[in-house]
Amino acid sequence: MIRHALSEGARLVRSRLGITLALGLLLAVPLAMSAVTATTVGWLNALAAGTADAISVPVLLRPELDAASRTAWVERQRQTHPDWSVRLVPADELVDRLGEWFPSLSSVLDEDRALLPPLAEITTDTPSLLAGLEADREVLAVGPLDPFARRLGRTSRQLATGLGLVCVTLVLGAAVLAAVWVHLELYRHADELEIMRLVGAREGAVRGPFLVAVSAPGLVAAVVAPVATLTALEWMTHLVVGLGLEPVRPSPWLLAVEVGVALMLPIAAAWRTLQRHSRLGLPDA
Question: What's the Cα-to-Cα distance from 3 to each of 10, 204, 250, 278, rounded to whole Å?
C-alpha cells in the first residue's frame, strides 16, 4: 500500500509539477513573512526594553567655550539636577564616532580636532526635562529627546498586528489552495477511485497517493521559507548594524516551527478534504 501511494503520488506530482511548485511558493512566502515579522518584533521589543528607563541624550555646547567653561557647565548641571548623569565626550571618542558614521571625514578629523564642537551626554529617565536646556546660552542644540530605538519600540505592536494578520491570511489562503487542488484531483480521478472502493480497496490506499502528492508543496515550502527568512534577516542586519544597532538574529526554534508548519499544513488540508469526500461521496466524472 505504501509503495502504491508513493508511485501514484509521484505520478500526480509529475503531471502537476507547475501547480506543485506554485503551491510550495505560495506557502513559503507567508511563512517567511511570518518568521521575519516575529523576529523583527522581538528585536524591536528588546531594543525598546533597553531604552525604557534611562536614556542618554546628546547636548551640543557652543564651540567658543574653553575647557574651563565646559567643565563648569557640567558641574553646574550636576548640582542643579542631581538625578542626571552628565559627562563630556572626550575628543578621541567623538572622533571615533564621527569616523564610523562618516568615514570620509576621518582624515580631516585626525588632522585638526579643534574643529570638533564640545559634546556632552546627559543620562536621565525623564528626557523631556532636557528641553529646558535649549534656552541656555552655552548650549547650541539638544536632542533627540526621543531616541530612534524608543520610537521603533513603540511601533512594534502595530507592526506585529498588521503584518500578523496579513501572514495569517496568506497562510490560510495557501491551505485553501491545497484543499482545492486535492478536490480537483479527486474530481479528475473520480472513476478510478470509485472502482477502487467497489473492489474493496482500503481507504488508506485511496487517500495515500493524494497525501504523498500534496506533501511535495510542503517540502518545497520547507526548503524555500527558511532560506528566504535567513536571507531577509541577513539583509536587515546589514542595514541596522550600519546604524549602530544590535543585529537581528533568527531563533532556531522559530525556523523549526516554520519548517514544521510548511510540512504539515498542506497534508492537514488534504486530509480534511479527503475525509469530507469519503463521507459525502465523490462527484460523477
Answer: 11, 12, 39, 22
